[in-house]
Specification:
By secondary structure, the chain is mostly beta strands. 14% of the residues lie in helices and 38% in strands.
Length: 699
């Protein structure tokens, strides 16, 4: 009913916490309390024992709060807590058969004894007239000592007697609350379905300080150390009890669990937690029938308020504690754990695995992506100036010269211009065109086109603007390029935020037009929020990285129409340091491809090419995090340690593709056969293979 099991599973059982019960005494021989009745338990009236042969009300209350987990009988909320029983019934009142009575002075004496014994919670399953000054002062002293006082709302819900108001807690509860409003909780009763018990006083005007707990059909009355059973013609039965008296100790048990699990909490904070985390019932929010709602221990144990990494100002939002690695990292985070300590708004410490919110990048359907486009390239060559456009034909057939009204049907997705500024200097400008593509055009590289194995970069970007300038130095060429692009992450985050990156490059090439050609590129890439395409939550450093690359390339044309080429890239990434990411966070990455092609295989102008490649892959390195790994409640301080998170995958994708292309029937025809081993750099991932045949013609 009150979800205590999750607290037990977290290690909370009440051990070391004293629950003081001011009531009619306790059966000290009941094994449910074996070894856990405090030596300070006593009768505040002299000349009597703490046990009371005339009444079992105090025993029943104690059972609900703290009956042992001993494979017998019932189980209390705080089943390992210490019980301090303070018998306070008026001498001789319990033997009358009408229930025990309690004087204000006796209750006050019990409260003072509880404070002196170091109790964290005092249970008052009592009712009656408003407290006098003696009792109110005792309650105030308890509050000043940090003790929580839990009191039942009363059982006058059905009363029609003059002077009795069933729509509010009884006068004793109301006056105790008035004496220490921050440390007192009033408890009403609901049944096992969470419906208000008809006998329970309502929260009424004190609703903001009232929560409900099950006080109806509570098991069970004991005979000695065993549950009492009654046998008749209908069967064997146990005896259950009803009353707000048995709702209150469920809340007292919850207080003990919280006090044990989070020793930093003050009494007022525990009261605040239980009230704010109560499960809503009745009308939305606080209402006059259910007060703040029904006791929910699991909610009370969950983080509340603003959360942050212990000992730091780094905020941790559990709702956004997520991130996604990139395709270059493959299965790196599979099985990873990044343990740390988080504090909530009450400065309670929680174990947290920062890697639990990370997701691996989704595997892209590369063949589908390659074939699903409806793009049409258009070009104009006018001497020293060449223009190129890519138009999305899915918006209608697009002639170069648009008629009025047709502008809405066409989208120019990319464009570039290449011009010769003088005999030694060429310039290329592009919109939605990558700097690598512009550089290849200036270097007059004519590499085979592949559907799948061509995606060797591993980073999926949408270029926005690019430029390249190539200066010819005899047989050498020096190219300077720059690009501004947006990262397109194939991951499950689906966030609208755009992650930008900027790249600059320098490339030296030679041997163009001869049997051998070569090139050597140096690049610098700045990611504003990502790390090789990965997106991390702020608690993992947030991202941002600078990558330097070295990219060599070789080409050899031999025989009749044969060509052999190889390219590679080696990257060195420095991840931005921050509140938790240290300056030691580094990555080394690589990609490569080898091509063999032949022109004029079946007909003049056709080309058959084979490529073997590895897409971009992190070879070693990862995040080095300086994280809190322990929290000391006594000193309110954190212990920090270096916690690594490797971003190098265990798998390694290798791609092979055989592609053929030719002009056919007034259009372009192509065919490809491809194979991918361990796609996405996931070790043991099923191989991916396929065949594609395509014919297209421009109109």
């Amino acid at each position: 009913m009150h979800r205590a099991i999750s607290a037990w599973q977290a290690g909370a059982d009440g051990k070391g916490v004293t629950i003081s019960i001011v009531d009619s005494g306790i059966d000290t021989a009941n094994t449910e309390f074996a070894g856990r009745i405090a030596a300070s338990s006593r009768d505040v009236v002299s000349g009597r024992q703490v046990a009371n042969a005339d009444d079992d009300h105090g025993t029943q209350v104690a059972l609900v709060a703290a009956a042992a987990r001993n494979n017998s009988g019932i189980l209390g909320i705080a089943w390992n807590a210490t019980v301090q029983m303070l018998r306070a019934d008026t001498d001789g009142s319990c033997s009358s058969g009408d229930g025990c009575t309690f004087s204000d002075s006796n209750i006050a004496a019990g409260i003072d004894a509880a404070v002196n014994a170091g109790a964290r919670v005092i249970n008052l399953s009592l009712g009656g007239d408003a407290a006098n000054a003696v009792l109110r002062n005792a309650v105030a002293r308890a509050a000043n000592a940090g003790v929580v006082v839990v009191i039942s709302a009363g059982n006058e819900g059905k009363s029609t007697a003059a002077g009795v108001d069933p729509n509010n807690p009884d006068p004793l509860a109301a006056s105790v609350l008035q004496a220490a409003p921050g440390n007192v909780i009033i408890v009403g009763s609901v049944d096992e379905n969470g419906t208000l018990s008809d006998f329970s006083n309502r929260p009424g005007t004190l609703a903001s300080s009232v929560i409900m707990a099950q006080g109806q059909g509570i098991c069970c009355v004991y005979d000695g150390s065993q549950i009492r059973t009654t046998t008749n013609a209908q069967g064997t039965f146990v005896t259950v009890v009803n009353g707000t008296s048995f709702a209150a100790p469920q809340v007292s048990g919850a207080v003990a669990l919280l006090a044990q699990a989070f020793p930093n909490l003050t009494g007022a904070q525990i009261v605040s937690l239980l009230l704010r985390t109560a499960r809503d019932a009745g009308a939305a929010g606080t209402d006059s029938l259910y007060g703040r709602g029904i006791l929910d221990i699991a909610n009370a144990f969950s983080p509340q308020g603003a959360t942050s990494l212990a000992g730091t100002a780094t905020q941790v939002s559990l709702s956004t504690l997520a991130g996604a690695t990139s395709t270059a990292m493959g299965d790196a985070i599979t099985g990873s754990s990044v343990g740390t300590v988080m504090l909530d708004g009450y400065q309670r410490a929680y174990r947290l695995d920062l890697a639990a919110g990370l997701r691996s990048a989704a595997l892209r359907p590369v063949l589908h992506d390659s074939l699903s486009t409806g793009l049409r390239p258009l070009a104009i060559d006018a001497g020293p100036v060449a223009l190129a456009f890519t138009v999305d034909r899915r918006f209608g057939a697009v002639p170069m010269r648009l008629e009025p009204g047709q502008q809405a049907q066409a989208r120019v997705l990319a464009s570039s211009v290449v011009t010769r500024l003088d005999k030694s200097l060429d310039l290329a400008l592009g919109w939605k065109v990558s700097a690598d593509s512009l550089t290849a055009r200036l270097q007059q590289r004519h590499e085979p086109q592949f559907l799948v194995a061509g995606m060797a970069s591993g980073l999926f970007t949408r270029p926005e603007t690019g430029m390249a300038a190539r200066y010819r130095l005899g047989k050498l060429g020096l190219t300077v390029s720059a690009e501004r692009s947006v990262l397109v992450r194939p991951d499950p985050l689906r966030e609208r935020r755009e992650d930008w990156m900027t790249q600059i490059g320098f490339a030296l090439d030679g041997g163009q037009g001869g049997a051998f050609d070569w090139r050597l590129g140096l690049g610098l890439m700045r990611e504003e929020r990502t790390v090789l395409g990965a997106r991390f939550a702020d608690a993992l450093g947030g991202g941002g990285a600078t990558t330097a690359t070295v990219s060599p390339g070789l080409g050899w044309r031999f025989g009749k129409g044969w060509a052999l080429g190889a390219t590679g890239s080696l990257g060195f990434t420095r991840i931005d340091s921050g509140a938790v990411a240290t300056g030691g966070s580094r990555l080394v990455s690589s990609s490569w491809s080898v091509d063999l092609s032949r022109e004029g295989v079946l007909a003049g102008g056709d080309r058959l090419a084979l490529r073997v490649s590895q897409p971009l892959r992190v070879e070693r390195g990862g995040l080095e995090l300086n994280l809190p790994v322990a929290w000391d409640y006594a000193t309110q301080s954190a212990t920090f340690a270096r916690v690594p998170l490797s971003l190098a995958p265990k798998g390694r994708e290798l791609d092979a593709e055989l592609a053929w292309a030719t002009a056919l029937w007034g259009g372009d025809a192509s065919a490809s056969v491809f194979f991918r081993r361990e796609p996405g750099h996931f070790v043991g991932a099923p191989d991916d293979g396929g065949v594609a045949v395509r014919w297209s013609r421009g109109f």
